[in-house]
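Two entries, shown back to back:
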Amino acid sequence: MADRDTTGLRALPADRLAVGDVLALPRNAGTASVTAVRIENDDFGVAALVVATLADGRRISIAAGSVIYVESAEAELEASAVAADEGSPEALVARIAQTYPGNAALQEIAGRLAKGINLKAGSNLQDLHQFATALLVDEGDTAAALSIADLLAAQPFDGNFGRWKWIEGGLAIAAYLTRHDDDRSAAYSAAILAADAAETDPLRAKTAALYRQRQLNEPNVYDPEILRASAAGQHDVERDWRVLRIGVLLYLRAHGGSETLSREVLERRIAAELAAVSALDAQLEQS
């Protein structure tokens, strides 16, 4: 990467490249977000090659030990004077938010999270879930949404269902976004079942399982609320209800579907809802 203009970039050993970094590409071909990193060893077991997968699916091979350049992860949000540690959740959120300066919802959430992220705090988990949802629904940025969802997915079930609600939501988003990688998606789906197995009393566990199955078979997908808002021409209200519906559908899909809704049907419905929200956004912009 010689003769490169490194203004606004920072040097980094290739083996420290991480998911979420924005990599300066070879031959001054711009930058791209990194969605996966794999280290390949030589025959002696020593790291020899770093293979980075980019947001557009391309793979870049980099010699281990070489120097690469990435966009700085230390820039602050304009609304915050708190500098995030490089590689921290705060830095990840700040970097993603800077990509979408015109998205007020993302900026508001990022401003709160820039003060410090406590992954044990329910309010922070809620903000991260909303941030990931906005990235998926508003911006269609699946790579960024997955990187935020992964922060939630890494948290274990500790018996606190208030916190688990948001972790569960992150797992559902991650399971959907990795649906073309069967093993990875299945791992997220398996993790989401942790709370289902929390009850140790056999009778209570059976009762809970029956109740849970009924919820899966007869989910509340906000049909009346959406129909009322649509009939009244309240596009903003309809949009909010449809976003909530997407969350329910993602949850159902992560559970493998139900007796009434297969995973394939749910994936089609999720795609349809994302398209519906996009259409509503276009109408709201014109009004």
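entry 2 starts here
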Amino acid sequence: GGATFAIMTSLYQSLRARGLSQHIAWRASFAIVPAPVLIFVAVLTLIYGTDHPAGKWSERHNIPATEIANEQDHEDHNDSDEKLDEKKVHDTSVTVHPVQKIAAIDVAVNERLTLKAAFKILASPLTWLPALAYLTTFGVELAIDSQMSNVLFGLYSKTTPGFTQTTAGYYTSIFGFLNLVTRPPGGFVGDLLYRSFGTRGKKVWTLFCGLIMGAALIARGFYIEDHHTSTKSPSLATIMGVFSLAAIFSEFGNGANFA
């Protein structure tokens, strides 16, 4: 996120100052910062993470969704190649209370993957909706993170003394740091809307966030185009204000997508 982006740019400048080439310094920055962090998180996930929301992978069928699906004559395929040790598996009773509305996603159960099942999954809008929402929220963040520092550096390096690539990286890292305070509320609002309006409420909230984000990004582009000349740069405060607005609603939408 933002911390990694800011640290990597600072480290890159430090390595360049020590005499490393651009190619080597950038590759070393990847090895020194992101790689150890990813390995550390992977180890924590391996130690403390669960195989499945129900706990152990062998107990993945002991969830209310399975009971509901069975009542609806849904096929429940247990993996035949898994031999469960009866001494290690505890009997699990599941009490299902009748409800008036159940979303299709709430009764999803584990099934053996076949070509027929794969086609059914790919043909379902429920598969593509969260994927496309993720693409247009977090995907936008990744696209901006990869290019925003270059844009800022190109705009202000010649007109603002001391505006280096590192400075541009610090400004760009705002997008990532905002995740700490914007993504959770986006998911919280999505959950609140779901209680009253179901999945439609979450979809409308996600689309609303996407529209605000898109409008802000388009406005920023027009502003830069209209105010950038060879001798004058657009207001950095205005650009960062619109940039932050787009970031906030991008991450609101991303949080809603996870909700």
